[in-house]
Amino acid sequence: SAVTAAAPAWHGLIDPDDWxxxxxxxxxxxxxLVEVEGTIPADVLGGTLYRCGPGNFExxxxxxxxIIDGDGFVYAITLGRSGxxxxxxFVRTAEFVEEEANDKIMFxxxxxxxxxxxxxxxxxxxxxxKNLANTTAVFWGKGEHARLLALFExxxxxxxxxxxxxxxxxxxxxxxxxxGTAVALGFGSAVDEALGFGVQHTAHPxxxxxxxxxxxxxxxxxxxxxxxxxxxREWDEEWKPxxxxxxxxxxxxxxxxxxxxxxxxxxxxxxxxxxxxTAYLMGLxxxxxxxQIQQGAPNRIHLVxxxxxxxxxxxxxxxxxxxxxxxxxxxxxxHAEEQLLPDGDRLVSVYSAGWKEEGLASGxxxxxxxxxxxxxxxxxxxYYCKTVVRxxxxxxxxxxxxxxxxxxxxxACIDHPxxxxRIEARVASSxxxxxxxxxxxxxxxxxxDVSGPPLGWLRLDLATGATAHWATPRRGGxxxxxxxxxxxxxxxxxxxLGMLSDARRDQSCLCILDGxxxxxxxxxxxxxxxxxxxxxxxxxxxxxxxxxxxTAE
Length: 553
Description:
Elements lengths: L8 H4 L3 H5 L8 E5 L1 E4 L9 E9 L1 E2 L2 E2 L7 E8 L6 E6 L3 H9 L33 E5 L6 E5 L6 E3 L6 E4 L12 E2 L4 H6 L5 E2 L4 E3 L4 E10 L4 E9 L5 E9 L9 E2 L3 E6 L2 E3 L2 H5 L9 E3 L5 E7 L15 E5 L2 E13 L5 E11 L26 E9 L6 E8 L7 E6 L15 H4 L1 E8 L9 E6 L5 E5 L6 E10 L6 E9 L4 E8 L9 E4 L9 E5 L12
Parallel strand pairs: 12-15
Antiparallel strand pairs: 1-7, 2-35, 3-6, 3-36, 4-5, 6-7, 8-9, 9-10, 10-11, 13-15, 14-15, 15-16, 16-17, 18-19, 19-22, 20-21, 22-23, 24-25, 25-26, 26-27, 28-29, 29-30, 30-31, 32-33, 33-34, 34-35
């Protein structure tokens, strides 16, 4: 079934104590030389892996309400030719600095962490959320233009030094983005600014390796209309804007992730309602705690045409192509493919991690992730899904062709799928590029059709459904994290970089695997001085920052 029934030690996959300690608060460290087992491949020497996630989970001996409310921690592992080094620092946001100095919770967070006791009056009608900077580390830019950003779903990016991880304040892109709660009342920007309203920047940008651009977006909710204004921006390697597209989504609950093809931006809208609006305004709960799933409502795939024509503020709104799918919940996309058909129509195939409809029976949104660690007795199993849309020639209409779990993974519990970054935004091909586009890589838990923590990594052949995986022993105290896929220099193959925490050693290591022989396990392990908290997303900065095809989440 898609939702696990109560079972000892989560179906024997892991000791619950090991999983709970995966969300212990960490300490800053380094820079320091670190231990290596095996041989680091030449293709990745000189590069740096950046990882981001929650790292602090309490203040003043009070545990945060939810792990995703944890304060952002970024660490860097540089695979130097004279030996790898590692460095870890908290993102010192304005709120982090103030709470650290006072050793207490002073700000509200998305999942219900907020001032309590004598300070709970601060929450009433206070809609400002703490910027946690805890979701993704992004490295982009060539030479002197290189930037490292720590991203968060409900705020603006924070700028970090790529070398020292020192925090340098908010990234507003020369004042274009205004910090604040991402709401507009419709009475003009001066009113919104006076009320402390601004925009929120996505934590899931993507790279277009063909046009050599970072594609990102930000949003603002039109509170009185129940819609969200999305602004998509494509940045070149000097952080110059090359394309800007604006449109309105017919929901105030902005999707978490997106993907792109050569012709389209693609969003999957999960059907949610904000039932906790009054409780949020009255300071009784966080905004994410009040989200409810619309049982039985179809999901919606929204496609927006890419264009370099729109680069200014007055270019109007782009139209949406919308297609409904059966009910499900989309979490992350690995990628999308586009195929031009002989009649001029286009097939857009979207690959995503998500929950089936039967996994949404509780109606709550991430409620099982509250407390010290996610509870796999009630969390739905995550599947890898494929959704295909046919877009008519000229882009006037679109229809759903298929939606379901991807072939070969019908009973596999997975998460965080990724492809070789060279195939993002390319037209589907059976030629020289087909080698790179054959595979998708992802975190892997089990093939038992039950929910559980990630114990290793899996490769799926997208054409045939054939799979291969490498996993640590069940109940062995080792927990895998999201992969970053790095192209091999000499072939269409890929190196896989994934963090693995080991409860028995009380350490975490970077595992490097050969994507073509994933079942053989790591060719090298780089051990950090301590165990890291279970993180979210990362980015690869190659030795030559001009090789932006290697910088991919």
